[in-house]
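User: quick one, fold this
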Amino acid sequence: MESSFVTSQYTERVLKKQEIINRLNYLNFSEDTLILRFIHNKLGAVLDLPAKPDPCGEDSLFCCWITPLDSGLSLDSYTCRELRFDDGLDLVIFTAESPRVSAEGIEVLLPEKAKVCKNRRIRRYKTPGIGVKMIQKGVIFPGSLVDFTPEAFLVTLDRLSEQSHLWLNPKEPVTLLMEQGGKQLFSCDSVITAWREEGAEKHILLSPKEKSIVRLKAKNHRSHRQRLNPPPSVRFIHPLTGKEMLYTLSDVSGSGFSVEEWEEESLLLPGMVIPTVSIELAGTRIARCKAQVLYRNPVPEEERSRLFRCGFVILEIPLQEQPRFSSLLHQAADERILLNDSLDLEKLWRFFFESGFLYSSKYSALKEKREEFKNTYRRLYLESPSIARNFLYQEYGRICAHLSMLRFYSRSWLLQHHAAGGGCNPLAGVDVLDHVTNYINESHSLASANMDYLLCYFRPENKFPNKVFGGVARDINNPKAASLDTFAYATFSSLEGELAEEGSFLLSPAGDLDLLEFESFYEGISGGLLAQAMDLKAPRREEESLNREYKELGFFREREVFTLRIEGCLKALITVSRSDLGLNLSNLTNCIHLFLVDSEGVSRKILDMVLSQLMKHFYSNTVPLLVYPAEAADTLNIPVEKLYTLWIIDTQNEQGYFNSLRNTFKRRRYE
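Assistant:
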């Protein structure tokens, strides 16, 4: 290891007088400094003094002292031989002709030429005001950042006791933290490559230990990267320089993007977090995001020389802006796919009816309030609310397939309304499912997406969802990764008159102890994901923030959880869900879920009394009732109209999901 900073210099070219003037004026414009080199007339000692250049004329230059000359320092025995300034990349040196020194500064005549030495391979950027902490084996060494490149950091340590400096072992790595105004800007593990001492000050040169970082769990099925034409751009403030940066995207996906920069002008550091990145197209902002630089790799020489490609991962993106960004990517991949785009609602109604999705019994439940239903869908499809995602497959203005997503639980989204028809591409239903799958793969790692789980209700006799979603669960064969639970569906109607009491029971709001008992029951009967996905796990997640989000968007959502106890024993857990009419066309977000834990002592009369009490939460005289397990409906003498299977998957299990779809459809898109 060297004890001084060594750089290989070689003369690259000569600057003419006008070029010297231009560089000096830029130095003045940037409020930067240059170095005046004085040589002692007898001893040959070298004295370097910093100064600020005034605006430069045609023949001479005046430089002001940065600090007044020390009264004990006389320059009479020194002669100014040369001026030099460093722009972070090149070192410019020229002779000081006819220097005239005064108390205010020095004036020199400009020469006809100057020498430019290639000082560095990568430009160093100065960073005034950024503090650092070097941490090694539990000891913190404070200091400041002088300048940086993506490959090196120059740090000056604060003046500490000599003993403290001796604690720094140059052969051991350090953790380097950079901060400003109490805010952390960057951190990385580094190695000490050189140092230099100037009096009591210690200057340390460090290099990042890692050339790339891994932020998220590795995926077997990565987001598809695209080169768009015209390409979007990204704009952000560099955390260390404080200057605005603008890059054209080399490629982009829903989870990240890459840009390219010349090696000598490199500014992007692997590990650096950019709090606010504006993604723009044709001068219009598409979305904002928080991103982190993952890698900085040279572009292969056969493409371009001395060019580096830097990859970013998107850490966060506002949920209301994400559909616009994702829509751009999905339409670039397939112009027939629309994501949360405005559409002709009349075409949507026609599609729902003609595809058979809105069959007669579904429509009869909606027809009396069809204006309310239409209003809900206007807001769902035209206002792009953060709680919903709508995917359409459209050919020549005709809707061929549809699938939507609704965030109905705190960390879970409900897949619903998958339909295909319209006399179009027979694989349109598969194609729209494909794009929804890619969207989920891109989005579930974003905290704002709240997408830990996906849910989907389907009728077991419906071949397509049973083959796809049921097939995923069966292929994965692990209920903690993907589970199937079957409910019996019935319609409960308000009972007229007084109900005769039969035994005593207690219906009360559920607490954490009730949920613990329910979890134990569910674990024994299924072992799946229902409890955590439907927020029925202790400690129970609060739902008020989700209710408030619905309200702020002009929608309605409420859910309450009750327990039925007889003689102190838990008999059933009951959820009462209420939402806008048609939010789910099967009214599965406007219903009662009855989880029968113990049937002993629970008669049909008791059940009627309990459900009648809960009907006060609804404005309708009838409400859908989903009974779990499905066999419990027979035990309670509940007439079953149909069965619904609830499929749930943990989104962290994307490998099993994609593998199953690949086996099901034998299509390369899932490779």
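User: anything notable?
Assistant: The first helix runs from residue 17 to 29.
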